[in-house]
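Readers outside the structure-tokenisation community will struggle with the description of the input data as it stands. I therefore recommend that a typical entry be quoted early in the introduction. An entry of this sort, consisting of the sequence and the corresponding backbone structure tokens, reads as follows:
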Amino acid sequence: MTDSRNTHTPEGLADVLVEECETKFRIESTAREVFVHHGYHMVQPPTFEYYDVYDAAVTKPENMFKFFDNNGRMLALRPDLTTSVARMAATKPLGDLPYRIAYSGSAYRNDEAFSNTRQREFSQVGIELIGNDGTDADAEVIGIAAEALIKFGITDFQIDLGQVDYYKGLSEAAGLSETVSDSLREKINDKDFVAIDNMLEELDVSDELKDNFRELPKMFGGIEIVVSALENKSLNDKSKKALENLMQVYDALKNSGFENYLAVDLSMVPNLDYYTGIIVRGFAKGVAFPVCSGGRYDNLTEKFGRRLPATGIAIGVERIMSALSSVQEGSIKEESDYITVALAKGRLAELSTEIFEKLGYDIAEMKSKTRKLIFTDEKNKFRFILVKASDVPVYVEYGAADIGIVGKDTLLESGKNVYEVLDLGFGRCKMAVAGPASMRGKIDGRNIMRVASKYPHIARDYFHRVKGQTVDIIKLNGSVELGPIVGLSEVIVDIVESGKTLVENGLEVLEDVCELSARLIVNRVSLKMHREKIINLIGDIKNEIGKTDKEDR
């Protein structure tokens, strides 16, 4: 019998067949033509380098493919091409400054999120402008990327501009520690309104600063966002200069004819250690992830012995292929006029539809006895789909649904890359560590060796990251309470509502892991491309929840 490993590619890798390969080469060739036309020169970095070349702040060590050479030195497949280009610029004679460098090649990431979903090997084309710290340099690389997208045949796209120093200024004004600042930054970048509110409640800063942080996730849209922010008298010089810099880059791109493709997102703060100024993300209809990304990174070359200001942008070739495929198949024609909402079948869907009904949406057919899974409100241009609860984050992450309503437990377990924008308040319960009373007070020791759970990712994260313990996580699908009773595990991690089932089986709650409730989640691209509709819906739902809370009181 033939070994399947001889006939299949490893997880996250794929053969590129004839038609796809021709499309891929055409994209890469077109990009090179655009880059060369603007005076950029192609280079080819090595496929792997010494592990120390790559910055752990940019790509986590566990997400790199690592191996050793004959001398025992650790090597890594390149997780991106920018770092290798920065090393070249700092150590090789490349002519007179500024350097205009272009590249085309594959990058590799051993990220669990890529397994079975996105590719572990992916292709990029991009440019780096090194040695120029002016706004003209930022505008140049962004404009060239926009020109390339148009040349590829993509016309329905949006390029978001951000500026990391705006957030850094707020953080400095608040006197936040590096740890707290980075944690809050992460939540703002993810537009996790619930977690942001929780963090701000604990911070000892002025109400004015709290309001500035609280508003930040909503500060995306047109250039009026920047104009309005500049009128805020409470901003310090760093934040003001960041806004002025962003305005200058915007104006330069506007003068070059790219105004219709531009938007602003001040909450886009992915990495404060790497980015030092302007940040860029490009989105195209039909693709659930950014098709290009980049920004200013003035500190990277210093790692290699020579500090040079730098800015650049990378375009994902496979994502451009997806965007072109969507256009050709016509899947984003009139479909883009609708907002699709994924609802978890069962009680959660019933509670969710009650909210939409109160807001005036037509959900009459959903309330009837039917086996249909798709329901359309033609008047409001909304489409509702009923899916399994665990699938809601998947539909939303990949853009098959713009919005979803799902339990926090499912969201945590899935680890999907979505915006979590609202705590809906219903379906409240908690995730907890439970076990026999004899285990109380022993969880912090070496007594816990095995943990049974329907939620292995949540359990692993709690014990490994929060408790600092290495335990064996056993995935169960049925009655998890049996684990400690029959000796399969010492404790369990599970959802607890009344706790009655635990008591009836001789178990009790030993520690709370986290509070759970239904959450409103949004696809990252949909929030940009359907901003007005989705922001209005979030506001309407929030107001409706507020009314219900008052009535309950």
